[in-house]
Amino acid sequence: MKPNIHPRYQKVAFHDTSAVQYFVIGSTIHTDRTVTLDGVSYPYVAIDISSASHPFYTGKQKAVGKDGRIAQFNRRFKGLGARK
């Protein structure tokens, strides 16, 4: 590999602000902010949503029953067919 062309890969603390949970994950993101977790200092990145707070992953998402495209077409154009 060529030297000095790759971004620095390091452990980063991502903070889900809506669920108040931290995830320490390897990343190449650059930030000047730091946070100390379990006695170790990590670069800090705040995020709005993650698997800890997203409705799909928490089971709070409502399933919306959608008809297929053919059913939608037939409902929309019902009664507009060719007349004999």
Walk me through the topology.
Blueprint: E1 10-16, E2 21-27, E3 34-37, E4 40-47, H1 55-58, H2 69-76
Parallel strand pairs: 1-4
Antiparallel strand pairs: 1-2, 3-4
Structure description:
Belongs to the bacterial ribosomal protein bL31 family. Type B subfamily. It comes from Pseudoalteromonas ruthenica. InterPro entries: Ribosomal_bL28/bL31-like_sf (IPR034704), Ribosomal_bL31 (IPR002150), Ribosomal_bL31_B (IPR027493), Ribosomal_bL31_sf (IPR042105). This is Large ribosomal subunit protein bL31B. One of its GO terms (cellular component) is ribosome. This protein is of the alpha+beta class and 84 residues long. It has a domain at 10-62. Helix content is 14%, strand content 31%. It is built from 2 helices and 4 strands. The chain has helices spanning 55-58, 69-76; strands at 10-16, 21-27, 34-37, 40-47. Strands 2-1-4-3 form a 4-stranded mixed β-sheet, with no helix packed on it. The longest helix has 8 residues, at 69-76. It is elongated.
What's the short version?
This protein is α+β, with helices and mostly antiparallel strands and 84 residues long. The protein has a domain at 10-62. The chain has two helices and four strands.
Keywords:
alpha+beta; single chain; Ribosomal_bL28/bL31-like_sf; four-stranded mixed β-sheet; Ribosomal_bL31_B; 84 residues; elongated; ribonucleoprotein; ribosomal protein
Largest sheet: 4 strands, mixed
Which structural class should the secondary elements be placed in? alpha+beta
Give unreliable regions as ranges.
Answer: none
Portion in helices: 10-25%
- Physical arrangement of strands within the biggest beta sheet: 2-1-4-3
Q: Span from first to last CA? A: 75 Å
Measured by DSSP, the beta-strand proportion falls in: 25-35%
Average pLDDT figure: 84
* Series of H and E elements: EEEEHH
Task: Please report the total strand number as a whole number.
Answer: 4
Q: Count of helices?
A: 2
**Radius of gyration, Cα only, in angstroms?**
24 Å
Task: Tell me, briefly, the overall form.
Answer: elongated
